[in-house]
User: What shape does this take?
Amino acid sequence: MARKRTQYECSNCGHRTAKWLGRCPDCSQWNTFVEKTPVAETSGKAGARASGARVGAQGAKGPKPVTQLGSEADLPRLHSGITEFDRILGGGLVPGSVTLIGGEPGVGKSTLLLQVAAGLARAGQRVLYASGEESVAQVRDRAERLGGLHDFLYLQSETQLDRVLDGAETIKPGVLVLDSVQTAFVSDVGSTPGSISQVREVASRLVLHAKATNRAVLLVGHVTKSGEIAGPRTLEHIVDAVIYFEGSANPPFRVLRGQKNRFGSTGELGLFEMAADGLREVLEPSAALLQDRPTGRPGTVVAAAMEGSRCLLLEVQALVAPGFPGSVRRTALGVDQGRLAMLVAVLGKADWALHDKEVYVNVVGGVRISETAADLAVAAAILSSLLGRAPAPDWVVLGEIGLTGELRSVPRLEHRLAEAARHGFKRALVPPAPRQFEAPKGIELCEARTIEEAMGVLFR
Assistant: This one.
């Protein structure tokens, strides 16, 4: 009889090793290795289901010449009726795909997915919503409040994955929703729900189930303190799409951001507003984010940022306050902390001393800017607060700043300026535009090569 080998697994990232280690070589966390005994090969009904899924998937989709295969664009899409959600997925849910949705507690993940499930049910799709955190009565009451009661929407309160899949085999839904992947467990795996092993096994079996039955699967994932989805990194690798739902429970706006998508583009962004009857789509996000913008107040500048294929006009605010040299604070909300430190250093090199000042930067609405095209807007907001001078309200500012203070061009300039002109902005401060570039009608182009030249134009 072969002797079972003991393994050690990191409870933080799932890294496995043959011996105990004090520090994980993958996630660098200390004292996270726990002893694990390798699980015997899966048997019984669960094993038959998993192996059958593999055989069924391979048998139905054996090797074929590439010239005989269709394109992903030809795949049918399931439309939920929520435009922003469908757009982030590339036009809707793809049958047989697995989508993971993560977010902070209370942000509205369950509310969003229940609205999506109700929309799919109204479109004629059978939907099974399996909740491991709430009873069917609680989910039903929320569905009634959201106006989502429908005969094609089935509810189940269950944490054992085998029973959830048995329910799916009974009603044959087109879409399966599991809320959440951390509460579900497989009885064959000897660990508690939410552990690395359980999360990995639950996700793997759901992927096999989706591919074998051509059934779309939506998973809810909890996040850690660092904002990443809890569980092993392989969880994000094996699914087809990863979506983050951002925004705390207090601000009115929630941001739905596509992080990974095998059936469409990544980086897409959708804006929602929490109301008494659920989440509402914000179809004009630029207007919503700028509706309370103050005019004539120092420290506020409008930037044009690209989020996927959409251009957003965002208000960047800055506050410069007296501090003590050596212990001043640099706080950034919505922009990269390291990028803010670099811009403060560039401004200091350009004779705007900030070494004894505290600098706070915030992007209004809870939106995070991930591109460098907002550098000039951040620098302009900081300098506006420092000088106590407000730029004219019809300015839109965009451009990347280099370490020597030079301004660099930004991609898709025409699209950004067209969005600014559509919302009534008259002047745009930009880096040198390409030759033969024509600004959209109604907006004046003001070019600058350095940060000193740009600030001279903006505050003259």
Summary: Confidence is low (pLDDT under 50) at residues 41-60. The first helix runs from residue 44 to 60. The two ends are 86 Å apart (CA to CA). Residues 288-458 form a domain with the Ribosomal Protein S5; domain 2 fold (CATH 3.30.230.10).
